[in-house]
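Researcher: I'd like a structural prediction for the single chain below. Treat it as a standalone chain; there are no partners to consider.
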Amino acid sequence: YFADFYQVYYLNGLMAGALTKTGKVGYVAAHPIPEVVRHINAFTLGVREVNPEATVDVRWLFEWYDPAAAREAAEALIADGADVLAFTEDSPTVIEVGQEYTEKGQQIYTFSHYSPMGEFGPDSAVSGQLINWGIIYEDILMRAYLGVYNNTNLEDVDYWWLMREGAVTLGASFDEPINPKFEDELKAVTVTDPLLGEISVYDLVFARIEQMTDPAMLFDPFTGPIYDQDGALRLHEGQRASYGELLSIDWFVEGNVGTIPR
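Model: Treating it as a single chain, here is the predicted structure.
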């Protein structure tokens, strides 16, 4: 079973693209595995949808939890011009770095990961991704109790739950999807969407949530045309990445700076 964040990372990317003033966004990444690559790519797709010239600089830690290395990477990215940071690392260190720089007068926008980390950066954390494993466990246990799952078919059970199922949600805290401190900035930036017309990034985020939580999943970030960082077309116009492609993705989308270690 799995609850995946890629749709929420995309939403974070929309906001990151709107907020960056330098056009340089940083990403502190754990391990170069498909899950993390998928999240980085979704984030970058969001950034570039709003800010087509922006880039996302990726720094690898090769650890899930390493606050010291996360701090070093975050500060190096800021030194290289990044004013927005996202990450996949299981501490609030990147948020804390963003808050420290912001308090010193250099606004650094951050997006939290996995758990509610907003309290570590009240003036820096814009939003993030939050997990709800309980809803999956409840479904598994209920189906087992009712006999839907049993010892003849349990090995075939495969959960891949997204925003539509309620397994993941937007926010750096459970009580607000977007830090109110940044609402005005997000409302001030507009984009033109083929279906939605001219719309603020703030409203676009919630429109995308409606589309992605619709039973028919009316929108998905991994819908072509999508090019990789070498300019090769990976998904054709209107083509949506398959479950298998998302699970095994091993290439960076256009706009990412850095490589995927092999």
